[in-house]
Structure formats: structure tokens, C-alpha cells
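Render this sequence as a predicted structure.
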Amino acid sequence: MGNKFVMVGGGSTQSPGILEVLRRRAQELAIDELVLYDIDEKRVSLLGQYTKMYYAEMGSLVNVTYTTDIDEAFTGADFLFMQIRPGLNAQRAVDEKICLSHGVVGQETCGLGGFSFAMRVIPAVRQIIRKVKELCPDAWILNYTNPEAILSEAIYSEFPDAKCLCICDMPISIEGAIAKYFDKDLRDLTFKYFGLNHFGWWTQIIDKDGKDLLPLLREDVLSGKIDTLLMSNDETVGDQYWIDTYKQMIKLFKNFPEYFPNCYLQYYLTPDEMVAHDDINFTRGDYVTNGREKRIYEECERVIANGSAKDSSLHAGVHGNYIVDICHAIIHDTRERFTVNITNNGSISNFDPKAVVELPAYVGASGAEPIVVGEIPTFQKGLMEMQKAYEKLTVEAALTGSYQTALKAVMLNKTIPNFSVGKAVLDDLYEANKEWWPKLKDDFIPEQKTVLV
């Protein structure tokens, strides 16, 4: 018997890269059935028809189907790759612009754009996992849905028995860039890392001879020899956003040279620079909508109209390879090392054991076993404590619908400078997202005025 794979959010523009890797590696993964599932009938139909045609014309024996029926998709599933986006990139752009209009970061995982995205996506993911437990309880869920840090906290706390791994390809993308700088094969380096998703640091880069390359990288940065890294991910090469991001990452390392930072820390440590750099009239959400989205769906339409995909191709990059590599490790119990989001459980000894953290782990048939980090320094721990409190309160707000809890979460986000800005952004986001957010209770306790006698 082969495996049934389901792409949850199969109409996503992130799907093609994963679909190509699955096609190439179908035999080693024992895939005999692939289902693209989505609630968006038009998008899943476009990508579904394209994929069926493409797989067949490339000689694949995998049976490809697509559907908007969740029961049909999930029944008998062995692996579910989840990447959903309630509100699509159009709502992402709305959130970004609301935040920027108040002078704060609007990024979809880090600032209140991330808070808003979490409020949209947590209810949807809860429904999906309940369906998994009902229809295919033994299936593995590999989650790529953002904001990964908040969503993993929600999933692991409510569904501790679910066979789920929450993952992100950003760490391996940065590691690939570091390997490229040292002219090393990525597999010949061991990266030591700790943090939260989009909120972590590399502490060592060990080569095959046991030498730590981090001091060399630090020396090259502090001496001014380099001011950026060359991206190893073909999907982002030439994208000005990522070019600027990698330069900012090196700048952060120069300012805080103890450990090498995840690039997303730019939104927390230099939020003013990020806001100044953004264009409120054309945000990242607009860029994706007018770029990758337009290109992919137009290609699907062209191929369908022509009745053949022989003159078309899909690109397999880091995003697709990473999730499939993890899947391969589970199927074949290889116990390879990957960076995943997992319950701390003492791996970071001076951090909340119940909190979800991002750490290297050995992945096999039984899931992920994180590597012990030990104690972390006060600076990183302090930043993580505040961020984790924000993440937990965001989950609580999504589950309880408490406005007061939502406001507390907002005030713990490091991108928010004060109460008046935080409340104003929250209120505007809520008004713009009523179709997707849980209804918030009117439990706000206003400040009591002091009467001077």
C-alpha cells in the first residue's frame, strides 16, 4: 500500500514548488495518491488541473485529484502538508497598510500584521485538525502555515496528541547562505541554534573537522569585509526585499555580535528602520499578489487552455525540499537533524518548559527529539520571554474572544511603542477583519480618571 498525500491549501501559490519535489521523489515516499484540497474552488481547480496534466505528461504514476470536500480529501490520508491563508494576500496587504498608517511594523508574522493573521488562521486550523482526528488520526501533519510561532503554540497546547510538526524554511535558507559564504556543502556543517520561530540565534557553525566558523564570520563582519550574504534560495534571488533583509541581518550581527541572528529580528530590534523602508501604497502583500500570484495562476490558465503542460515546468526550491526532506525522515526513520518548532520540555533549561521553541531536533518515525541547549543568556532570554508572552496571549485571545486579552497581547509586541498606538491599531484591524476574526467580547476596562481634591 502506498501513501496518500494531501496538500491542505492546495490552491496556494506556495504549492507548486512542493508539488514538483513530491513528483520527483514520489517513489521514495511511496506516494500513490495526491490530493489538492482548498476551500477556494477557483484556485484549487486551476492548480489541480495543471498538476494532473503536468504529472501525467512527466510520466508520473501518482493519481492526482483536487477537491473542496474536506471529508473526501482527508479520508485515508497519511501525510497532510498544511499552508493556508484565510483572507489571502489581499487581507495581508490590508493589515500591513493599517499598521503602517499608525507608524508601526505591519509584517505578517512579526508585528500586528502577524497578530491579525493569527486571529484569522487559528480558528481555521482548529477545524482542520479536528477533521484530521476524526478522519485520519494516524496521519502526520507538517505545517507551513504562518504565523508559525503563534500557530504552533495553539496547535501543541490544544492537540498535544496530534502527529504534527510545525516547521519553517527560514533557518535552513540562512544556513544555506552561510554555507555558500564559506564555500561549504550545507550537509557538512552543523548549526547550533535556539529561539522562537522568526526569533532566534545561531551560536555555533561546526565544520567536518570540528572547527567553529562563527568567530570567522564575526571577524569578517566586524572588520567590514562583508555587509551581506548571498542568498542560496533560488526563489528569493533578485528579490529586493530579501536583498535588503540579508543586509539588515548582517547589520544586526554587527550591533549584537555574540550570536548570529535570524533575519526577522530586524522587525523587533530596528522597527523604525523597517517602517521607514516600507511603502504604504504598495506593501509586501501587494508585491506577492501582483507578482508570484499573477504569474502562477496565469500560467495555469495558459496550460489548461492549451491542453498540455509539456512546455511548462515547476521549480523545486528550498521551500519544497525542506518539508519533503522532513517527510522522508519520518517515513524512513532516518533521524536526520532539522530545525523545528517543538515544546521546550527543558531543552532550554532556563526557559518555560511548556513553551514552544524553535530548536534543532532529530526527526524520525516517532517525530522530533530536540537537542539540549542548556542555559541561554539574559539578553536573548529577556526578548524571548516577552515575545512568548505575546504569543500565548494571542492564542488565548483567539480562543476566548476577549478584547482585553487581545489588547494585552498587542501591548507585549515589541513593535508597539505605547498604549494609544496599540489600541488604535487593534481597533482598526478588528474592524477590517470581522469576517475572519472571532467576535471579540466587550470586556475592555477603561482607565479610571483620578479626581484631584
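Summary. The mean pLDDT is 95. The first strand starts at residue 3 and ends at 8.
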